[in-house]
Amino acid sequence: MRLEDQLHDAMAARVAAAPVPTDLTERAVAGAARIRKRRTTGAVATTMAAVVAVAFAVVQIGLRTGDGSIGTMPTPVGIAGPARIDLISGKILYQADGGEIPLPFKPGMTVTKAFRANGSWLLTYQRTDTRDTVVVLVRADGSTADLGTGDGSVVKVTENGARAVIQLGVGIQLSRAVVVELPSGTVIAQTTLSELVVVQGWSNTIVLLGAVSGDLSPVPVDRWDPSHGPFVPDPTTDEFRILGRYGSQGQVLALTNGGVETCPTVVDPAADFAIRARQCGVGLFEIATSSPDGHRLMRWTTEPDGSQGRWESLDVAAGDASFIRLGVPPTLVQGDAWWESSTTVLVAVGATRQQPTELLRCTVDGSPCTRVPLPPSTTDFPVPVTLP
User: Fold this and answer.
1) Residue 24 — φ and ψ, nearest 5°?
2) pLDDT band, residue 14 (cuts 50/70/90)
3) Adjacency order of strands within the sheet including 344-352
4) Which of 13, 27, 192, 370 has the most Cβ atoms closer than 10 angstroms to its Cβ?
């Protein structure tokens, strides 16, 4: 059973069967309904989340909007400059500065996710016919090291890229979390976790954990200090869905229950997860992804009649009350998206999520997106590297 993220494959009701989940959160979402009954608190929001978790079979970003209007949607114009984050295509890592690094060959496996770190990259290889994954460290000098193999994985990198926590499924109802220094790959701490616990991110040097939820609604959270030995559970009574860091002082952006919606919330894990700011009333019903600095949210949403979908962003730091539509043409098919910076997003578009054909650069102000040139000569669509 997988523990983590991301619910991908937009609108599974309209497309072919979703691929095998590639990380622990996906498996957890798929199986948590057999483990955990729905909470009565926030029942309406929970029910709506469950519907989206089914419709968006494998995606981390799936929300509803309040206005329901379509309006005039700009179309992509012109060709943008090269991607400002690294891209992996075939067996080459194409750096944003123009460099290229050959990647190790893993028979029967492909790179499904990649993460930037200090002087290095962490790549998740998945076997094409099973759920087995291998996390590989690739250093700037081209040297590599395998950091672990498991039945699914979660990778979270600290803000400065100097450490990463890697969670790997290792057996029935168990996973292992390992903290490594980068770029050396030296293991400095490790602990065993239940299948009901998933790594959600970092707060300075503390690893943040959350309970598994079948619908990605807010859940009890916990902390693991790698310098204090193995993890000892001490979960909060309040519930949060941690999205990522907020600013640079150890705070995080999370979602909290707000009746029929969820509310963007700034939380301080060092102060027993004290709430520092909270904003409700923005029409946020499920999960979203946050920008590298946590100041903005991005979501995929559909029209009330399900006719089309669109990408939208929300400026949390500014306290905006409504989402801004990104300049991506309306589509029935949700692609993947990656934050390129705190104000720009790369969006994959195509006839299906499994077969995207273009990579668009979109800004959070809603101006028309531009096409990003793709790396040459491979049959595989590039995998953008996730920023810390």
Assistant:
1) -65, -35
2) very low
3) 337-339, 344-352, 355-363, 370-371
4) 27
The token pair that represents 71 in the structure block:
């309006």
Query: Rounded to whole angstroms, how far apart are CA atoms 254 and 294?
Result: 9
Strands 120-127, 109-117: pairing is antiparallel
Tell me the three-class secondary structure of 26-85, residue by residue.
HHHHHHHHHCCCCCCCCHHHHHHHHHHHHHCCECCCEEECCCCCCCCCCCCCCECCCCCC
3-state SS, 208-228, equals EEEECCCCCCCEEEEEECHHH
The single residue listed with the structure tokens 């460099």 is 99
Which two tokens mark 215? 């619908």
User: Can you give the length of the chain in residues?
Assistant: 388
Rounded average pLDDT over 145-163: 95
3-state secondary structure of 270: helix
Pairing of strands 144-151, 174-181: unpaired
Q: What is the widest separation between alpha-carbon atoms in the chain?
A: 56
Asked if residue 235 has a cis previous peptide bond (ω within 30° of 0), the answer is no
Q: What percent of the chain has pLDDT over 70?
A: 79
Q: Which helix (H) or strand (E) holds 18?
A: none
